[in-house]
Automatic annotation (TrEMBL):
Organism: Heracleum sosnowskyi
Keyword set, alphabetical order: Amyloplast, Chloroplast, Glycosyltransferase, Plastid, Starch biosynthesis, Transferase, Transit peptide
This protein's name: Starch synthase, chloroplastic/amyloplastic
InterPro entries reported in the protein's UniProt record: Glyco_trans_1, GS/SS, Starch_synth_cat_dom
Subcellular location: Plastid, Chloroplast; Plastid, Amyloplast
Enzyme Commission designation: 2.4.1.-
UniProt pathway: Glycan biosynthesis; starch biosynthesis
Amino acid sequence: PPEIQDIDLLHIVHVTAELAPIAKVGGLGDVVTGLGRACLSRGHKVDIMLPFYECIQKQNINELELVTTYTSYHDGNWVPTNAYRGIVSGIAVIFIEPSNHFFKGESVYGGSYNELEAYLFFSRACLEWMQITGKEPDIIHVHEWQTGVVPLLYWDMYHYLSLQKPRIVLTIHNMEHYGECSQEQLSKCGLDGSLYGTVDKAVDDRTIGHNPERLSLLKGGIVYSNAVVTVSPTYLTETLCSGWLTRTLMQNREKYIGILNGIDTTIWNPATDAFLPTNYDAQKVGGRVPLIVCITRLVAQKGLHLIRHAIKLVEQLGGQMIILGKASNTQVEREFEDLANSHNKDSDIRILLMYSEELSHMLYAAADMVLVPSIYEPCGLAQMIGMRYGAVPVVRKTGGLADTVFDLDDHSQPEMANGFVFEGIDEESLDGALHRAFSYYKEKPNDWNRTVQNVMKIDNSWNNTAGKYIDVYNSIRVK
Ligand code: ADP
């Protein structure tokens, strides 16, 4: 469709478990903020609804005020709830704060409350808030399993109450999070869980004989949303070919599309980034010894054995490496702690086991190469941010990595070539790519510098892809 969509303005409400920078764990937080800001700048009205996690630093929210005191249903009770409004990165955010123990604790995930129940509560509390305040956006945009019940609640409950106008978009950022849920648990948000245990509704397709007792909020969200988006064209194809949701996605093929994520190039801009001691642009010159960084959640998806192998290899090749990562499982944490203890004192390797927004900016800026050896990667932001900061990507060819990084030694499309790509999940495949990257760095410094300048100019911003989301919104909105 032509660009008329931005004359025809929309009201979009995101319902999300993460929001950068105040409640970010991984890419989901970046995407909601980046897409939200891109739509705002095109003239649309955007609000974001987020749980008021206890760990959110209130000083990072502007103009925070209590706007609504109401009750929302959970498990037989109406829970007194506050809705606050504030501004984060220029976007209006509604914070939902229940008076019970949900969302308390030191981090976004992993508190001592039942996460499934807390997000079921949050999902309903968002619709309840729209109903009592009379806010009817054109689009309710939900993300991941945490808010996958919103479309069920909308079409089977709130649409029969007072909400008429909204249509629903679900973005799947990572299909490996199912949102497992029993019928009884689903009933806690006020729906009759026993009505959803069929293959055409919310039954988890992985269960033997399609056990009607076992539901998946992500699956239900796919069935009940008006449009379903995943975060790169290659991941779309991969998920239609294999995986637990293939059958459901094939059945919903006409409303399922792949849109590559962007990065927010105002937040991620080496020329203005306040976290950097010195700002720079595409004129940066590389150091003598290449520095390779890997900034990631330390989970199996990210290729942990390949990250460990890269440490050895970089040492052998005489480079430097910094890993900034947070593990969510104690076994992985211990393994990397052991690696940190043996390397951090007297080698060119540093393993930093923490989450730090500030350090991540400085590391992307300092890096010559950014390593993303994921086993699967729906989209991946680290390679895009790395390139924006002048780091040449070394990645495994999967999902969104395959849509954004093209090998410098593949001469079939030289104008796209921007990094080093390997295919296998074995250590030798990574060896090949890293060896090639190191030789290129050492033997062809002029070519390397040209590549650095090229990757910094690649436009992976939301300006490029937000329009595709607007097209999806317009294709389902009620005129
Ligand atoms: P995922 O969503 O699977 O975590 P993405 O590549 O889409 O992966 O997004 C990861 C985002 O989280 C990037 O912005 C990356 O810089 C950031 N990130 C990951 N780990 C850390 C960390 N330990 N400290 C700071 N930022 C991190």
